[in-house]
Amino acid sequence: MKNEFSIVIPIFNESENILKLVKEIKNTLKDNYLYEIIIVDDCSSDNIDTIMRNQYFSNCIIIKHKKNMGQSESIKSGVLKSKFDSIITIDGDLQNDPNDIPNLIKIFQNKEANYDLVAGLRIKRMDSLVKKISSLSANYIRKIVLQDNCNDTGCGLKIFTKKIFLEFPFFNGIHRFLPALFIGYGYNTYFEPVNHRKRTAGLSKYGTLSRLILGVKDMIKVKKIINKKRNKNV
Fold first, then answer.
1. Are 61 and 30 in contact (CB under 8 A)?
2. What is the pLDDT of residues 69-104, one digit of tens each?
3. pTM exceeds 0.85, yes or no
């Protein structure tokens, strides 16, 4: 049901941010929604275990990977563990603003539109100049090749239907191409401007050159996946 949500938070060495994020989510959603929070610790090397053991949050599940598997695998682990049919993803670095979640939920619950994915658009990016330029370039190329009409596929704040996510052929990096896959498979999508905050603690895991190379390879892979799906439907 679209009024029940599993909130999946992939984290890697975000011990300085995760508790504040969970508190912000709970303060924002209060008792207005039926939801669970699934934190997926991607084999962090900081003291996140100690921090989480000393805290108790209702409706909160923690999954710990035995080795670092990446953000896509972390999201997949959370989705597979989830008990609800609608998934909300949010980055664990506090740059996504939980205050945007109720508005995205309202859009997602629009019965007339019947959206299968509602994704955030970071209009005012609070990142370094290098990261902004790299992201703009990648988004420009991706929009031309995949025709997904999305200006910011990398925003971690998204709501989508669980069964559709699990329908896609999985690969490491899929989380950056969800809008393209949803559109390519013929599902309804919507993009909504959201707030973006500066990182105040922890370190960015952003690798410009490595991500660019992997992004090009993944883009070709996604193009093939979409074409294969469309050819089946002909």
1. no
2. 999 999 999 999 999 999 999 999 999 999 999 999
3. yes
